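Quick log. Single chain, no ligands specified.
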Amino acid sequence: MVYEITLKTTGRNQFIDITRQVESIVLQSGVKSGVCVIYAPHTTAGITINENADPTVRKDIINSLEKLIPWREPFYEHAEGNSAAHIKSSLIGCSQTVIVQNGKLLLGTWQGIYFCEFDGPRTRRVFVKVIEG
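-> predicted structure:
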């Protein structure tokens, strides 16, 4: 079964912690040992795993990406004007896979799962598949 998380983002660049929602899906799936795939079907968004104890880490990543890939560049050619969002999405990636052990995500002490918005605000979807094995 494929589960879906719906998110409403509020800014152009935003990291939303979806760890608890994914943990709930793993619990609901009943899978005790396997993998969990978290996938964003968007070309201007991504999924990453990073520190969830200090929110300034998220801000630092967003600010660094914005510095490396500014919203406006004279050489961007994409007609929609959101080339930076597409580039950031490609760099971050659209999915993550986490091991499931004893019915729980096998994340590090400080790790969380984040939906990464690069072209908001929008309504977004994240698909989660828990696979036994």
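Strands lie at 2-8, 14-17, 33-39, 45-51, 95-101, 104-105, 111-117, 123-132.
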